[in-house]
Amino acid sequence: MNDQHATLHDLRERMASFVRERDWEQFHSPKNLSMSIAIEAAELMEHFQWLTTEQSEHLDPAALQEIGEELADIVLYSLSLANHLQIDLAETVLAKMAKNERKYPKEQVRGKAHKYTYYRKQEGEK
Amino acid sequence: MNDQHATLHDLRERMASFVRERDWEQFHSPKNLSMSIAIEAAELMEHFQWLTTEQSEHLDPAALQEIGEELADIVLYSLSLANHLQIDLAETVLAKMAKNERKYPKEQVRGKAHKYTYYRKQEGEK
Amino acid sequence: MNDQHATLHDLRERMASFVRERDWEQFHSPKNLSMSIAIEAAELMEHFQWLTTEQSEHLDPAALQEIGEELADIVLYSLSLANHLQIDLAETVLAKMAKNERKYPKEQVRGKAHKYTYYRKQEGEK
Amino acid sequence: MNDQHATLHDLRERMASFVRERDWEQFHSPKNLSMSIAIEAAELMEHFQWLTTEQSEHLDPAALQEIGEELADIVLYSLSLANHLQIDLAETVLAKMAKNERKYPKEQVRGKAHKYTYYRKQEGEK
């Protein structure tokens, strides 16, 4: 099952079974899951810790494989948190993207990486 | 579009457009995206920083809304990294889950939260 | 040399030599060091990931030893960042503490863990 | 009081008073403090999120001021954790540095940023 066919629901169900079969819901409190996502994010970062941003664009297949697994762990804990809190992930993600589109109007931010507060300040200065 | 219907591909395409329209691919290097995921994970943790694990189970609707948005940011950057590295996220997540199923056999780990190295050690001691 | 006698300067010098002798200044850019601190912080968190806040108060000697080492890594990278940016750490830390004392007046926050924005809001509502 | 004169003990005592006066020991469990360090580390990273490693070497005074404050927060929570666990920080840091010196012999690692497992593997291949 690949990205063309897998729905968020499919993946959530798989993760929910994995956790339930191990009786791990008790450990998957929101607090613990937020730590788990941060821990996996750090393991992902470890692959890039001493690389320049430029070097991080040129990864060998072995590194890419490991990086994919770290990313998977982040997604798995994110799915478990969505399960635990009964959040619809697609709706929430699309709503957040719509909010980001308003916060960062494309004409204004094109090719720039400032934070949105920077743009609001400029707006205010006009 | 909700979790029942949204495929990973749908969300990836939306995120790819968002990034492309802002000419932000140049900032979305793997190194920078790994930092971004970790930063958003920390913003998620901030909601639980001073709560007990027990308290983190009882969130009011306002907190839940904010937590959903932080989780969305983590997912958005994860989608962007998958786009950037051309990783099929569903395949990678399912493969990692299969690996975790072997690493943590359900009969052995039920209701326990030790790391898998602990189980291998026990195995070795038999 | 223990906490009674070691100055920040002593520790900074030791770390500076360690880095210089390995010709590692080139890797210790502020960006990389900020990632390194975050990575070590995550390794510290890993020890507490599945514990309740209460359980984290009762650590066995072996865990305590490992936790001390993770904390040391955080401090080491912090010293290196201070070296790299030529920040006086004691002055900066004491200035930040003075700022925190104003932000969180002790009469007002005693026994409470809300963020300071919460206190400002209350103040505004009076 | 600057790095030339401030001992770790001086700073620890100041932080201990700050926490005690607010009756915040109850929140400063090892688990919560590990999250707090990680959260502050992420706030530090935020300053470098979209910069190249090279750009992160050239910070303007305003950025440097803010970065110093984030670093201070990391140190403050580290001091509080040392207080809470009664760890001598200078001893632990110096012991860890001695361990790192053995793990990364300077003749072998000069100018290279590989992880120490890489060096052990090479050693084994001889």
UniProtKB/TrEMBL annotation, chains A, B, C, D:
BP GO terms, sorted: nucleoside triphosphate catabolic process
InterPro entries the UniProt entry points to: dCTP_Pyrophosphatase (IPR052555), DCTPP (IPR025984)
Top-rank lineage group of the source organism: Bacteria
CDD domains assigned to the protein according to its UniProt record, in alphabetical order: NTP-PPase_RS21-C6_like (cd11537)
GO molecular function: nucleoside triphosphate diphosphatase activity
Record-given protein name: NTP pyrophosphatase, house-cleaning of non-canonical NTPs
Species name: Malonomonas rubra DSM 5091
